[in-house]
Amino acid sequence: xxxxxxxxxxxxxxxxxxxxxEAQKSMVSHYVKPSDTIVAEYIEIESxxxxxxxxxxxxxxxxxxxxxxxxxxxxxxxxxxxxxIFQLRDSEVDFRxxxxxxxxxxxxxxxxxxxxxxxxxxxxxxxxxxQIKKLRGDRLGNPQNLTNKTIQRGLEVRQRNAATxxxxxxxxxxxxxxxxxxxxxxxxxxxxxxxxxxxxxxxLFVASTxxxxxxxxxxxxxxxxxxxx
Length: 229
Known about the structure:
By secondary structure, this protein is of the alpha/beta class. It folds into 2 domains: about 1-100, Rossmann fold, CATH 3.40.50.1390; about 105-220, no CATH class. Helix content is about 55%, strand content about 10%. It is built from 10 helices and 4 strands. The chain has helices at about 10-15, 20-30, 55-65, 80-90, 105-135, 150-165, 165-180, 185-195, 205-220, 225-229; strands spanning about 1-10, 35-45, 70, 95. Strands 2-1-3-4 form a 4-stranded parallel sheet, sandwiched between helices. α4 links the parallel β3 and β4 (about 95). It is globular and about 60 Å long. About 20% of the residues are buried.
């Protein structure tokens, strides 16, 4: 196999100190076989939210010219922007992420869309939560605010956050799609773990968790009474 490696860090400090880059290189070195060839290596210092990444464009062109695979350590090193992921996919360059080697265009596309959607939701939820607290006159960190109603609301928020966390959402969508093919929850669990997917706490999935995610997905698909009117 021929590879073109691409490494990215978000800040100039990380780039000058080597922080982050060495970890990525270590992952790649353990993945590449002795018989493989690294045609070229590219390092970029750029925020993940930006799509203007000249070094990555060079890496893509080098991969095309040498008929090589673009190799990265972690999928999120490319971008959290769905449009950019789709652009890379449409460039017809074969790419592989060490942390998820079995990812294909479909799974990468789903993950990109979900990641971007979650980022937008987090921003909006934070803004609304702060507005509500100000209107209520709540003081953050005040134990007197911890009424039974507030505690219950906090529990509901945690449950909602668990259901909308990117890692759980990705697993939920994959579980729903695989469940429709007739697979058992244990088989689906094994597939998720084999693909490198993890819970929001970075742990392996278990069948009971996957079953709960599936039930949550079904519940989300049930229209509310307001929607029926």
